[in-house]
Specification:
The structure is a homodimer of 190-residue chains. With 190 residues, the first copy, chain A, is mainly α. The first copy, chain A, is built from nine helices and no strands. Chain A has two domains: 44 residues, Homeodomain-like (Arc Repressor Mutant, subunit A, Orthogonal Bundle), CATH 1.10.10.60; 135 residues, Tetracycline Repressor, domain 2 (Orthogonal Bundle). Chain A starts with a helix and ends in a 7-residue tail after the last helix. The structure holds a DNA duplex (30 and 30 nucleotides).
Chain lengths: 190, 190
DNA sequence: CAAGGTTTTGTCAATCATGACAATATGCCT
DNA sequence: AGGCATATTGTCATGATTGACAAAACCTTG
């Protein structure tokens, strides 16, 4: 979309905050109002691929074999994700102060909430006795998401880590979670 | 504060969304800009007591006996909270459609994040070997917060529950968490 | 091609929110 | 009281965001 390109170019040239939504619209040859019909907010241009990524994750999760333990499924889906180098570069740019940290954290919270919801849905579909266990399911889904994002934020707080390090940390976190859930004999798939 | 009173009155009289920030400022005899110096946003008037509540929780947590298991401390702090009838009434008003559910959820996320942070800080202070366990600590704190708020939202989704029911649900959730953490021998206080 | 319906865009007008700087008020010191 | 230092408020200007409704573009079918 033209708006997307215009925004990306302007952001790169003069920074995100120094670029007004109106400039973007103008450069793309449309009205300001039209810009806001395509993106819920100026900053959402940066996270435009997000929805498709979320869909990808949902499908990957749904495609896991039936008997697999939950945490293993989540792990598999997360690590199979076709990470977009572009997106990662963008994230790196954020860390380099292009963007208010508050905003990044805010966005991460949304992503975390969506991840949690995806896991919850997955469980609702897979568990035989889902109906009577809504609370267990919600708590489990959210805890897993919280643990993963906690891990990511601990990782982000240190400056000298590679993506591989993050993967290692995530694995460790997931292992611990799996042990905890397993002990209670909970959350194996149908 | 006069602003607070003005806002509350107007909100009650004509609803939150139908009240503009300017009206509030005017009724309180100040400028719009001044209103925004006292409240970060129009809706934050509704959550004005929030900070003091958070402080209360932090202190309650810090005051728990040294050897107590983490989950027990969190439980004790939460259930000892001097719940403000006013605030609960307000929450009821929210549920009665005064306010966009999105906004309520957004606020809950902030509260959840703060609760998680409070727990994390508590652990940092109490654990002997906190230095080398940042990841464990963050993951634990966030998981507990996520579980509690997941419980609350499951509760909120049903219309026929009492506050006592919420308390029961929370207890059950905390018990499960405690069992899980205990199994791994983690997170006992110094 | 034309009529009629659907989708997308433009226009207009509010409101929300915030930075910069001037004007004022307030408390405290002598 | 007089006068500075600090905190609070007013003014002005700009940008973000959104609802309502008109106008234009596009599509489908006869």
């Amino acid at each position: 979309m033209a708006l997307r390109r215009a925004a990306t170019e302007l952001f790169a040239a003069q920074g995100v905050e120094a670029t007004s939504a109106e400039q973007i619209a103008e450069r793309a040859g449309v009205t300001l109002r039209t810009f806001y019909r395509h993106f819920p907010s100026k900053h959402d241009v940066l996270f435009a691929d997000y929805d498709s990524g979320l869909q990808w994750f949902r499908k990957a999760l749904a495609a896991r074999p039936a008997g697999e333990p939950l945490v293993a499924s989540v792990r598999a889906a997360i690590f199979a994700f076709p990470y977009d180098v572009q997106a990662i570069t963008q994230m790196a740019a954020f860390r380099a102060e292009q963007l208010d940290p508050e905003r990044i954290v805010g966005h991460l919270r949304l992503v975390e909430a969506d991840l949690a919801e995806a896991i919850v849905e997955h469980l609702e579909h897979r568990l035989e006795d889902a109906a009577g266990r809504r609370l267990d399911i919600v708590v489990t889904g959210r805890s897993i998401a919280a643990a993963l994002f906690g891990t990511m934020e601990v990782w982000m707080a240190a400056d000298d880590r590679s993506l591989g390090d993050l993967a290692d940390l995530s694995h460790a976190t997931l292992d611990a979670l799996e042990a905890g859930l397993d002990e209670q004999g909970m959350f194996r798939h149908r």
